[in-house]
Design a protein that fits this description.
It is built from 11 helices and 10 strands. It has about 325 residues and is an alpha/beta fold. It folds into 2 domains: about 160 residues, D-Maltodextrin-Binding Protein, domain 2, CATH 3.40.190.150; about 120 residues, D-Maltodextrin-Binding Protein, domain 2. Strand 1, helix 2 and strand 2 form a beta-alpha-beta unit.
């Protein structure tokens, strides 16, 4: 065989091997780390996404709840783990935008240590309280807080979480003194709000919708600048006297930086297919999730812009770790 023929044969073999490797992934279950406890909004979203991806990729997506440090613990585990595409993380506005400006060190670089796969969606937060709470709107809430300084309490899933910052932002904008009560998880906080042990809570629509429909919670406002199709009667805080108020959490699926390019391409391709599936979109939409398809360049730019935005909010709110 001539030299040129040998070179061609070797090249074809290499290309074939590469194509074969692309076709193999994934050849065993994929772990999807949810950096918050079971029953949280992130857990709900992660399970829906995992099921949808598993159908397309023909491998189970195993949900691994790794809660702690505002979601940073699970995110760090993926950032420092194997870079083969078999360990992914469902990142949030908390893990990849708020925490880097809140903690002295989160154990990872939110931009450099991750390869974003796709923008999953976002959901506004509702301001909720128990049915017998003595306020039915933001105006009544602020009036109550000013009448009883430090007596009105608001719960959160922990210091520096988006629901904590939302409460702090309202305090600053309204000039009202409300007491923050942090919990280890959003589910625990919500339980005490329903029980009347804590006054109000800013929390994502998927986590509170069923309780609102069951009459266990009432809605004082929505924390986005516009109304949500899932809760059309919830009036934005911005329309209740606080123009510009906007606290909208989001979710992004990440692989660790350095994952093989063919693996990233396969994941992104399947993610794009999932986001066109009516059943998947309907299920998340029914939970109050809103989709925003982004091309890779747009997603990268969005994530870069979110870091300084939330760092400023953390600074302005005075939020700190107790």
């Amino acid at each position: 065989m001539k030299l040129t023929q040998l070179i061609c044969a070797a090249t074809l073999a290499a290309c074939s091997a590469a194509a074969s490797a692309q076709g193999v992934y994934p050849d065993h279950p994929v772990k999807l780390v949810v950096p918050f406890a079971a029953g949280t909004t992130t857990d709900i979203v992660g399970r829906e996404l995992g099921q949808a991806l598993s159908r397309g990729l023909s491998q189970p997506f195993i949900i691994d709840n790794v809660a702690g440090v505002g979601g940073s613990l699970g995110s760090e585990r993926v950032a420092k783990g194997p870079r083969d595409g078999y360990s992914l993380v469902l990142g949030t506005v908390g893990t990849h935008a708020i925490n880097p400006g809140l903690y002295a060190s989160v154990g990872y670089d939110a931009l450099k240590d991750f390869a974003p796969i796709g923008f999953v969606g976002y959901t506004p937060m509702l301001v909720v309280a128990a049915p017998n709470f003595p306020a039915n709107s933001i105006a009544e809430l602020i009036a109550l807080a000013k009448k009883q300084p430090g007596k009105v309490t608001f719960a959160s899933a922990g210091n520096g979480t988006s629901n904590h910052l939302a409460g702090e932002l309202l305090k600053v904008m309204a000039g009202a003194d409300m007491q923050h009560v942090p919990y280890k998880s959003g589910a625990q906080a919500l339980t005490d709000v329903m029980g009347g042990q804590v006054g109000i809570m800013f929390y994502h629509i998927p986590a509170v919708m069923q309780h609102v429909k069951a009459g266990k919670l009432k809605v004082l406002a929505i924390a986005s600048p516009r109304r949500s199709p899932a809760m059309p009667n919830a009036v934005p805080v911005a329309e209740q006297g606080y123009a510009g108020f906007d606290m909208t959490p989001w979710w992004v699926l990440y692989a660790p930086a350095g994952a093989p390019a063919p693996v990233l391409a396969r994941l992104r391709g399947e993610f794009d297919k999932v986001n066109k599936q009516p059943e998947y979109l309907e299920r998340l939409g029914a939970q109050g999730m809103e989709m925003r398809p982004m091309k890779q360049e747009e997603l990268n730019a969005f994530l870069r812009a979110e870091l300084p935005k939330w760092a400023k909010l953390v600074k302005d709110s005075g939020a700190r770790i107790d």
